[in-house]
Structures are given as C-alpha cells and as structure tokens.
Amino acid sequence: MNQIISEIITTLKDSSSLLEAELALETVFQRITQQLLSAAIKQIDLELLHDYKEQGYEIDSVPDRTLQFTFGTVEFERHRMRKEGEKSVIPFDKAVGLKPRIRNSPLVEMKAAQIASDGTYRKAEEAINLLTSFSLSHTTIHTITQKVGETIQEWTETAPLQDETSQKDKKKTPVLFIEGDGLMLTKGKEKKRPEIHRVQFHEGVEYKGKQKRPVLINSKMFESTVSSKEAFKRASLWLESLYDIRETIVISNSDGGSGYDKDKFHQIIGKCQRHEHFRDAYHVNEKIKQRMYFDKKMEKKMKEAVRTYDWDRIETIIATTESRIEINNEKATEFQEELTMLKAYLYRNWESLKPFKMRDLPVNKGIGVCESNHRPYSYRMKRQGRGFSAQGAGNVAAIISARKNGTFLKALTDKIPELTTKLQPEFKGAVRAALKKSQHRPSIGVKIGRIANNGSPSSPMGQLQKLFN
C-alpha cells in the first residue's frame, strides 16, 4: 500500500497541471487494478489445484488469458489440469463459470448494448473508448447488440407464459390506456422499408417537478418489425400476465392505419368493464387538411365541427364547400371526389371521434402518447444515413423497449446462463484459504514507555529505574 501511495504522490509531483496528473493517474490506476486482480486470481488458482491433485490430476500447462472488464483489460494465468482418460480442465475457469473464447465480461456486453441503443455503433465505440479503460470496435458492438436484442425478444415472448400469478393477485386499475402505431424507417439493406409496429399501455398521466412534466404511470412498450399482429400479441401476453381488467375501463387510441383498427385492440383486451376507442385527433385533422386543401376557410370550419362532434354541421360544411367549387375549374371533379372520401372517412369513424367530455369517463386525458413516444426509436434508427434490415431494427428496438420497461437486466439474467452462473463451492473454499494465508498483523512500530516509581531511589523499583535509565 505504501508503495502505491508513493507512486501516486510521485505522479502528482511530476505533473505540471491537474489534467496531466489525471491522465497519468488513469494509467497508474488501471495498471494497479490489473496487477492486483491478476495476483488475486493467481492465489485462488493455486488453492484450487489441491482438490484436483488429490483426484489424480496433474498440471498440464499454465495458459494465460485476457478478459475485458469494465475497469480495464486484465491478463492472468491459471493452471490446466489433466488426468488419463479424462478431458483436461482449467479449475479456475470452471469454478467461476468462465466459458472458452469469451473475451468480454458479461457487464461489458450489457453496457455496450445499452450505449448502442442510444446512438450509432461508431458513436458507441467512441464513447466506450473515451470514457472507459477498455475498447471495443464498432463491429464488435454491433455483434453484441444484435445478440442481446435477439435474447430480449425471445424473453419478451416467453416470460409471460411462465408467470403463475393467480387472477385474484393480479393488478387492478380503474382505467387502462392502450395505443398502437407504426414507425416507418428509412430504406436499409432490403427493398422494403422496415417498419416498427408499436403497442403500449399505461395507467394514466402524472405531473412531476416544478415544470409539471407529464410522466406515464406504469407504462409498458412492445414492438415488432414482423407485423402489427405480432406487436399486439406481445402486448396481449403481458397485459394478461400483469392485470385483471374485468372491472377496468379500457381506453384505446390509434390513427386508424392498417392493423390498428378498433377490433385489433378489442381482441387483446378480452373481458373488461367497458371499452372506449378513439381515433387520434392529430391524424383526423391531417386527413381533413389533405382532403380540403383547396378551401382553407371551410377546412378550418370542418375541424371545428369535428371537434364539437356535430354531424349535421359536417354535412352542411360538405354541401357548402361543394357549392363553392367553380364548375369551370379543371380540378372540380377531383375536389368533389376528395369531399366524398372525407365524408365517408368521418362517417366510418364517427363513433371513435366522440370527445372525452361526451363519453362520461373518469378521466379527460391520457391518449395520444404513442406517437410522441416514437422518439427513442426514431432518434436511434431514422435518417443520418442509417439503414437497417427488419431483423436488425427489431433487435435494437427490443433493447430500447426493455430499457424503457425496466426489464433489460431481468431479460438478460433470465435468458443468458453465464450472467447468473453462481460461483462454485470449491471457488469459495479456495478464496477462504487464500485469505487465511494472506492475513497479517499490521506493524504498530516500537513501543516507548517508562518505569513509574513513587518510592525512594534506594527502593528496589528505584534501583531498577536507575538501571534502565
């Protein structure tokens, strides 16, 4: 310890600035950590050999190995043992659950995948190289991310099926919101542009902080690049696993796109107290704008009529707008067709256009959040020259969803055995033996004292004091 402290002090003395000192100390601490861990592994490895020798094993070789931890790259040696008629074994690797040809620790892979779900693989490489004492190439990060994403997707589909919670013990909530929407990505490696189909549910909105920032209560997100049906299936499994909604008012919302009709939501809900479906107001207004682009004045009145849920007024506006079309206009027929399609659209979705205040609901807000929650996915996978295959996009999206749902670590530890491999009893025994051998009493230096004498100098104690002094 004194030697380490002396080296730190020397480093500080030889540095001309705090920045220079910190850069130098970063290297010093990394080297010290590597040396200490390597030395500790060596002691434990030697203790593990005893049991194998008693079983007739002999030392075959002492191979070295390099493993990247989050605190740096560590090189260490351990013994390989062999026995006639048996496969050779490395006691240390077996005791800690270290598989062959693995170069990165489980925590390194987990953190690499997390960073890569927020930015490009090259940016993740730069961040890791800059902020940590280990390095990973962007191709390695890509491989790790895809492997982790596949694992999470598999866990998301199987974990709810293994849940054994009884119906009476499942969560009950007065209101549950469910939304679905698709996010089209830029063209990638395939001819067809990949699309992320998303379904999410939550229990409402609460406002936090001085700025009253809206936060969804117990939000859960599910996605699929296969189909909207697959996304609904995943959401359905978790909905059934977590909630008892027999006495719940379920409020669903969508833009009415292909695969997101009311019946798709009704299929995954099952039995509930009541199901109310909304057509997303933003997309309804966009549809009006698209169909009535030729008459801005009447377009504004149409939006107001839909907002007040007045069908008679809508018919009047349609008729008025049609009368305002000039017969001599070469696009007159086209404009009339647009009005016909708009009226059919509004009639078809009229029940879903009814506003909150007219439905006798215990809440007056909470829908329209699915599209705003596209951002973590769109920021990571759209534009900026990024291209994804459907499978690659699905793996990255699965990591984003798991992080948002708070299930990232649970998914990996459930599905990847090496993340939860327990240290074997022989390893713990070797650690205890190594600790006993390394224990020592700290030096307290030379003790200084004096002989007390409360009697005369001629007394026996006085003579002894005189002798020592």
TrEMBL record:
Pfam family, one: UPF0236
Ranges annotated as biased composition (Polar residues): 453-469
Residue span of region Disordered: 448-469
Domain of life: Bacteria
Entry similarity comment: Belongs to the UPF0236 family.
Protein name: Uncharacterized protein family (UPF0236)
